[in-house]
Amino acid sequence: MGWKAGIEMATSASEGPSSGSSSKRGKVVGVTIAAALGGLLFGFDTSVINGAVNSIQATFGLSAAVLGFAVAITLIGCAIGAWFAGQLADVWGRKPVMVLSASLFVISSIGSGYAFAVWDLMLWRTVGGLAIGIASVIAPAYIGEIAPANRRGALSSLQQLAITLGIFVALLSDAAFERTAGGASEVLWWGLPAWRWMLLVGVIPALVYGALSLSIPESPQFLIRKGRDEDALGVIRNTTGSPDPAQRVKEIKETLENQRHSSYRDLRGNALGLQPILWIAIGMAAFQQLVGINAIFYYSTTLWQSVGFSQQDSFTTSVITATINVVLTFVAILFVDRVGRKKLLLAGSIGMFVGLVAAAVSFAQATGSGTNITLPTPWGAVALIGANLFVIFFAATWGPVMWVVLGEIFPNKMRGLALGIATAFNWIFNFLVTLLFPILSQAVGLGLVYAGFALFAALSFWFVKALLPEIKGLELEDKNKLLRPNR
């Protein structure tokens, strides 16, 4: 069974026997997969640097601080791209913005692969960050608008599935290039070392994403906002599988007609200057990064080498972790519409906390110094189990569900703008964690760093329990009534 067929089974299981035909289900799944490929590039481009980190440091003679900034600078571009993506999508449309993102991915991959100095590498990685930031906003926004309510959770989770697949493909390709060349710094083809090929190969998925973006329909909400009601009706009738397309058009028109064009003024409220729902979204975006997931996916190869694993074993361990990340994302796809967003997030916070505590205690037992650090028996195994337990719970809950929530929680009026801002904060905290991880690991040790991640996992539980509303199963227009911004 192909993964698309498995997704169709998962979404049909969540919707029950009264839903639309299987052909309509296949169409909306196919369109969603095409849009979610932006997530694959998101995961690929942010994680492919993993296998090249040590070689980049050696090639350009970088300190830990400069290395951390060279890896993290992509995330500055991500924050900028995310901030403006929603506004561009509201003006240009969802499809053109997807094509823009794919084009920037291609440019970044080529420039990074041929970088001749660290500043040059940083420049092209920033361009890639712009592309990632745009993709991270436009995919959940588009999927949230194209998917029917009773399947939105599962279909929106495809964004995170694509991200995990991108991480997996990146780490797998890194390992393949490293093994083929006999080392990441060894020459592979055309006189280029393997680490440069790790970055260049991103051109391939970027071209595929660009081609597929041109083949999908525009969002009904955008078409109606531009006065193209007939086109929107056709998309709803032929793609989304809505039982009453004309009524859906009417509902969307009513919500848009009752609301002015979105502006930053609409985001202001009584809660420290912003709408409460925007603060909740920003908090979720921050916690998803503060638990430290990308410390594993950006630095896992370096991490395991730093505690005594060989380079080849470190690459293999990173691929295994990425595989777990992909497989467990299907749990969210299966259960997010049945169990609900809030329950999954709470369970995820508990599981992540346990795994991070195990990793923190294990890393605190490290002995030696410099390049001769080891984890005595049985702490190496406990560290691996703890880190992968953390990934299991993250992949099944916070990884995909945070994006589901961001894609659906905002009213139509503020969705593009608010989603862009919340996603920008996700990238800002991603940047901070990525920049500070190698610095703090050297300064205070991995044990304390992972203890800090565990603390944020515990805080995320209380944040969700106290503040996040459960809104599964409602159309976006119904959520406008529940979450209407203050006037």
Give an account of the 3D structure.
It is a single chain. This protein is mainly α and 487 residues long. It has a single domain, classed as MFS general substrate transporter like domains (Growth Hormone, Chain: A). The chain has 20 helices and two strands. Strands 1-2 form a two-stranded antiparallel sheet. Helix 13 (276-290) runs antiparallel to helix 17. The longest helix is centred in the middle third of the chain and has 30 residues, at 152-181. The termini are far apart.
Order of helices and strands: HHHHHHHEEHHHHHHHHHHHHH
**Low-pLDDT residue spans:** 1-20, 473-487
CATH superfamily: MFS general substrate transporter like domains
Number of strands: 2
Residue-averaged pLDDT, rounded? 74
Distance between the termini: 51 Å
Number of domains: 1
What percentage of residues falls in helices of 4 or more residues?
over 70%
Order of strands across the main sheet: 1-2
The coarse silhouette is globular
How does CATH name the architecture? Up-down Bundle
Secondary structure blueprint with pairings:
Layout: H1 3-15, H2 22-47, H3 53-60, H4 64-92, H5 94-113, H6 118-146, H7 152-181, E1 187-189, E2 192-193, H8 194-200, H9 203-213, H10 220-225, H11 229-240, H12 245-257, H13 276-290, H14 293-306, H15 311-339, H16 341-363, H17 379-408, H18 415-444, H19 446-467, H20 476-482
Antiparallel strand pairs: 1-2
